[in-house]
Amino acid sequence: MEKKNRPILARLFGALVFLALAAALFAWCTGVFRDKTNAELIRPYYDEPDNSLDIVFVGSSHMMCGIYPMELYENHGYTSCVFCSSAQVIPQTYYQTVAALETQTPRLLVLDMGELIFNTKTGDKSFVHSQTDNIRYSSNKVRLIMDLLEPEDRLPNFLNLVQYHDRWRDLTEADFEPITSLTKGARISAEVNPFDPPEVPDFTRTAPLSPYTDEYLRKTLDLCREREIPVLLLYLPSILSPEQYSRVFSARDYAEEYGIEFLNLMEHVDELGIDYATDFRDTAHLNMYGAAKTTEFLGEYLDEHYQIDRTHSAALTEKWNADLAAYREEYPKQNP
């Protein structure tokens, strides 16, 4: 009887080995073939040691282009990462926040309020991929895809190879290399586009948000309250219409309701020294010159308004100092 079972066990073992190798090959091919747009700004978040970040910034490209974590560390001692994706809207930000908190319990979570101008459940489909392709597989990722995406869009976001199987023609050496970043999730751009200063907005005017935006902003704030993680709502300078500004400024109502802070940097452009002729790459995004100003202002604001313990282990300090040295070699210091 025992001898009869051996071929069955051998075949079963062989089948399991084959499935494991097939899964490993599929995962490798997926990593190589998928589009790497924004990957270097998202994936390296997971390289940070668990629960090592003082601050996590979550949101869209407004935050990605306007806050530089390495500058915060050098000038103020905060360990932080920007964990954002382009064209992200508030429902996506809820799931991005859940993903962020899978590996970190920051002393402060900073949410991008520039997204309040949108009324949809997701941004552009191509930019949705930059989020779903790069956050880790987990029940949260499954919920994101099933909740926010239309049925016909779900499979390509679950299995990237479905979306990118014909990308073999465009593969380069970089597709086979590890995804790394020196910027802790920030996008650094020296591009300059001059604009006329916008009409001074009415900071007291607010407009109701879409049901989607209201629901998922509350879910995000409730999640942080449950986890006892302080939240700062942040709006970075940009050029909007009066109606769009009024939606953004409704963040003040949520801040008052939840007993948290809303830092609206449009109210501080003179203190910041923002120059619309030199500090923007487009109407929605700061360049490196504008971001140096907003990052330093934020650092001083955090020093004054929050009691964040910046005591870190010797090993973590050594790591961040090494990261800072590599960053400075690539990006010389810009004075705000």
Notes on the protein architecture:
This protein is of the alpha/beta class and about 325 residues long. The chain has helices spanning about 1-35, 40, 60-65, 70-75, 90-100, 125-130, 140-150, 150-160, 160-165, 210-225, 240-250, 250-260, 270, 290-305, 315-330; strands spanning about 55-60, 80-85, 110, 230-235, 260-265, 280, 285. The protein has a five-stranded parallel sheet with strand order 2-1-3-4-5, sandwiched between helices. Strands 6-7 form a two-stranded antiparallel sheet. Strand 6 and strand 7 (about 285) form a beta hairpin. Helix 5 (about 90-100) packs antiparallel against helix 7 (about 140-150). The longest helix has about 30 residues, at about 1-35. It is globular and about 80 Å long. It starts with a helix and ends in a 6-residue tail after the last helix. The model has no long low-confidence stretch (mean pLDDT about 90).
C-alpha-based Rg, rounded: 22 Å
Largest β sheet strand count, sense and barrel closure: 5 strands, parallel
Write down the oligomeric state.
Answer: single chain
Q: Name the shape in a single word.
A: globular
The amount of helix comes to 40-55%
Task: Give the arrangement of secondary structure elements.
Layout: H1 2-33, H2 39-42, E1 55-59, H3 61-66, H4 69-76, E2 80-84, H5 90-100, E3 108-112, H6 125-132, H7 139-148, H8 151-158, H9 160-164, H10 211-226, E4 231-235, H11 242-248, H12 251-258, E5 261-264, H13 269-272, E6 280-282, E7 285-286, H14 288-305, H15 314-330
Parallel strand pairs: 1-2, 1-3, 3-4, 4-5
Antiparallel strand pairs: 6-7
